[in-house]
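User: I'm putting together a small comparison set for a docking exercise, and I want a reference complex before I start. The sequence is below, and the ligand is adenine. Could you produce the 3D structure with the ligand included, as structure tokens?
Assistant: Of course. I'll restate your input first, then give the structure tokens for the complex.
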Amino acid sequence: MNNYSFYDQLQMLEPKKDEFSKGERLRAMEKPLLSWYKGHARILPWRENPEPYRVWISEIMLQQTRVEAVKPYFERFMEALPDTAALAAVSEDRLFKLWEGLGYYNRARNLKKAAGVVMEQYGGVLPASWEELKKLPGIGSYTAGAIASIAYGIPVPAVDGNVLRVISRVTGSREDILKQSVKKQMEDLLLGVMPREGAGNYNQALIEIGAIVCVPNGEPLCRECPMASVCIARRDGLTKEIPVKTPKKARRIEKKTILVLDWKGRTAIRKREDSGLLASLYEFPNEDGWLEEEALAETYRVPLTAVRCLPEAKHIFSHVEWHMRGFAVELQEKPAGDYLWVTPEEIRETYSLPGAFKVYTMST
Ligand code: ADE
């Protein structure tokens, strides 16, 4: 008896030279991956009942948000808007309220737009075609692949960041996974090797192993991985180097002064412009740059004691960071301006203020 595990022994048998093609490696890992998934798949609401509408909504929510954070939003959304017709008919304000806290509001905007198209062109049912799904607003090749495979069983890949990482490691690819061309190559590769039956489980197994074993941050849990025996990154000790990602450009930093204006127990909010960052959402009045208490007292014609410092806050968007300083101002006269004067309850129940303003929402 020796102390080597089954996987270690397999790896000793495997010559160092990579004489297997990428496709062969991927075919070799299919069975162990699927049987691992059977035993380890998390029970998730959209998996229990993978109707096209539910898969669509869950996949859009999961694009930039963690599974645990998505669950309560998903359940609430399904109750409020149970089908494409309800989504197509909902007001933007109500939709944003349901989306509040998930961020990246363009996702919600596109959902409503796409629901309109599905009602008009497809009789309210998402098309059972990768190509047709990709034409809908907010649905790229990943989401189209996920809906087509999970809801309709169509054998097409669903390559997201998890899958890019897993496949790069298994095949030892040092290509930059942030490049569109690399993603396309991986889709083509998977399209050629994935099983014709059970495509939904196959894609979800790859996503799942990327989320809980071949993890994005920190050491992957190779000892628990059913694909360890065929994985080149593991064999060659390259899990730190693979996947390769070229660093992104640094975000632009914008200083902002956020104003929580109080007039007779009501707070001023206003609607943002209908394009650009946080388009059409509500916000507290704010100014570019960091203003001083004295300047604010003068602008709003109040004594300095009516201006109170609020906490500083930072919010990170994809290309910009807001570095915010906030002030509460107790007004004596109602200022001119296109404001809505709302109660704290209305801010909680009716108007959606994006997460960027969370610290200041708590000050109302
Ligand atoms: N992340 C993206 N899609 C997912 C899915 N279907 N299940 C779990 N995590 C996911």
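Strands lie at 252-263, 266-271, 282-283, 286-288, 307-316, 320-330, 340-342. The mean pLDDT is 93.
User: Thanks, that's exactly what I needed.
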